[in-house]
């Protein structure tokens, strides 16, 4: 009888321990799984952001060097290129160019011309295979301030390779920090 009593008490204690341990284990496994998924997603976003930023930096490396081959490695075959500005009459304009015109312009850069597009920041947004990058800039020609504005890049992850599919830049000479700093 005493043995039966101890067995029942021991069995009850083990069951109570198991009742407390099982939910704890389930919670622990769920938390670790969720945390691992969040860390994996954060890693993927961070990795893709770095890859997208590298594409933009490579684009400008080619532009600055006048190397159309470098620039072309960043562009999708069907890229759309536009520029918006305000003309001397105060009218807003939108100009569309071709990939070929952009690459020819880069390739025909005169050696004595030194282009420097100073990117002031990168605002990168990614959702799946689509990335959007906003880069305010100041443009200098031969060390002299020319204009400022912003670039808007849309990139497509073409099966592991981020490529620029749309580029629009806005150019202006007013309200530029570089002009304010000169005064």
Automatic annotation (TrEMBL):
Gene3D superfamilies noted in UniProt: 3.10.450.50
Top-level lineage group: Bacteria
UniProt-listed InterPro entries: NTF2-like_dom_sf
Protein name: 3-methyl-2-oxobutanoate hydroxymethyltransferase
């Amino acid at each position: 009888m005493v043995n039966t009593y101890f067995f029942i008490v021991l069995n009850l204690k083990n069951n109570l321990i198991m009742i407390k341990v099982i939910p704890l284990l389930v919670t622990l496994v769920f938390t670790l799984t969720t945390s691992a998924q969040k860390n994996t997603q954060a890693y993927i976003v961070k990795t893709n952001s770095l890859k997208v930023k590298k594409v933009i930096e490579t684009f400008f490396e080619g532009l600055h060097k006048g190397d159309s081959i470098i620039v072309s490695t960043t562009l999708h075959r069907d890229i759309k290129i536009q520029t918006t500005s305000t003309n001397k009459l105060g009218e807003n304009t939108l100009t569309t160019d071709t990939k070929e015109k952009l690459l020819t312009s880069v390739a025909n850069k005169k050696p004595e011309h030194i282009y420097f597009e100073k990117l002031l920041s990168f605002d990168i947004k990614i959702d799946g295979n689509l990335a959007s990058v906003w880069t305010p800039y100041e443009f200098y020609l031969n060390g002299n301030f020319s204009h400022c504005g912003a670039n808007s890049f849309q990139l497509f992850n073409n099966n592991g390779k981020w490529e620029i599919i749309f580029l629009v830049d806005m150019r202006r000479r007013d309200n530029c920090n570089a002009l304010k700093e000169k005064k």
